[in-house]
What does this fold into?
Amino acid sequence: MTFVVASFRKDLSRWWQDRMAFVIWLSIPFLIGGLITSMVDGGDGAMPTGVLLIHDQDESLLSGLVAGAYSQGNLGELISVEQVSLEEGSERIENGDASGFLVIPEGFMAAFLDEEPVALTLKTNPAQTILPGIIEDMTEILLDLGFYAQALFGPEIQTIMDGSSEGMPDDVFAAEMAVQIQGKVDALEPLVFPPALDLEIVEPPPAEPQPDIALLFLPGIVLMALLFAAQGMSADYWKERETGTLRRLVSTPGLLSRFVVGKAMAAGVIIVVLGGITLGAGFLYHGVSWSKFVPAMAWITLSGIGLFAWFSALQMLFPNQKAANLLTTILLFPLLMMGGSFFPLDVLPDWIAAIGRLSPNGFVVDRLTTELTSGSDWTFEKESWAVVLLMTVIGLAICTWRLQTGFARR
Amino acid sequence: MLEVRNLVKQYGDITAVNDVSFAAAKGSVFGLLGPNGAGKSTTINCISGLLSPTSGHVTVAGADIVKEGKEAKRSLGVVPQELALYEDLPAIENLRYWGKAYGLGGAALDARLAEVLEHIGLADRARDLPKTFSGGMKRRLNFGCGIVHKPEVLLLDEPSVGVDPQSRQRLFDMVEAERDAGACVLYTTHYMEEAERLCDSLAIIDGGELIAEGTVDELKSQLGARDILQLNGEFPVDSVKAMVDALRDRGLQDFELLAEETGSVTLTLSSASQHLPAIFEMLAAKGGVVAETSLRSPNLETLFLLLTGKELRE
It folds into this structure.
């Protein structure tokens, strides 16, 4: 047992000094995770806004209503309206400093009331796509609305306009207008009401609460950090061989199995730190229940040690250090791709997801995703823990076997 | 303390060590001499348990290295030829780790660490990383890691290779200190002067076979008082044979031709300097031209030449 602790302390002390490797193992998943999360979450949620410049040459009640219509309701959140001179408006729209520039000509209201043709001029910014389109559609709707209003209530509007030009209308005038308009509405009622169609509104059944899409990426990102670390630390067996310390170890009574366990324990501490930082950040960002943190840490630590053991075993199966590093690095990427680190298993094609779930990291990611996204407490599924524990023990046994069968003696 | 009996190590058809036997006593330095590739390191690796012998036995402090490996290794300290250190672990932690590998711990280990650091002259650099050390300091730490558990048998595999003269002297002092403390030291080298300086007894190995064994004085006595004379130049066919015949005609009894190659003749004879004029004359008479003459008095290097017909450092 003393030698297990000695081996553990030795490796932990050595690896802890290699801060650069630690930063790299941590920064790559954080960078990729940050990018993915910001893409999925759509940034800070701020909506784009446009500027509509209006030059009102008519300065009438109607032209004022038209200009004001763009600032009403939801449209007002998208478009801010600015009154400008003709010169300023022309210059700014040429410079691309606005989404649109609307010119309301002089005599607009008079022409409207007399049912004479009148032209509104709208210049849009070709560099923008959505907002100018909205302004254009809104303008057409306003014109259609004006046409129908004129057709139905032309005399009443004319009377109101005439009255408004003589100061504030008195109560009698207002009552007369209301009666006239109500009369027309009553006349239209048989045509419009009751509606020809009965509309039955069917409420859809309440949907299952959908997990936060960005949260689906978290397990894969955490495993990415662990995979990088496991692969990086596994190269230490070759480093020990190159420095002759493995050969020296064989000539001591210290058991190779204890050496392997000590190294795995040191890897476990590094994994706890890496996993703690990445998982903790994820829990904070996504608001995952902290009651799941400890079991999640236990799960990824055991899994991380297992991954380290298997990467180490693989390293020692290759004939030289260069081949070992190259091939284990190459192996990383398909594991990351299929194991849910770049794309959640749930969004992968079924057949790839099925393979991914059988990969070592995919198995761990799948279980972690299930637990983190469920609304209930962590479920200790014994079979999953047993599989990971068994695989870890087998990996460590292979490492010991390789050391005993020649790797340490060369 | 250390016994090697009929040791054989084969790699397929190649026999690296062939029926090697020797024994080394407590409180002595036993030298294993031979040129590169002679089988010294293979022998050391079999003794340290790195290699399994094809046949034969190695016992360390009474324990068989194959059958009672753990027990034998507990009594064994190894200082490998190449540095075997953790360069990113402080010197004292290197020593502590290897101490624990040998089963030491607690206050006894702490006390021993202080002792070893003092012994190897690194007490003031105990907390420093070996990667900041000079080559000589690393060699000393490498040595310290091999003796941290006070081994009864200490294996030193060419420990002086690449060591500067000052560090080499310190190394010799450390080896002698281990011997004086009662350890049995097995020292392999291809530097005969080192062997003469350090070893109480030694064995000469070549081509995987032990060709001589004894104390330094015993081995030197095999040479008698004969010198080694090496002549380089141009020697026509039969000129050397004529010279040898002429020397025999003169009645030289302890004369022997060791080696004859193109442009080089090596022979051993008593008081060689007195016979040089006659030798030159005889060779010249047959058209030979001597360009270079080397005359060496008897030592282990000349013994190796006598035994194998080749230079130790070839």
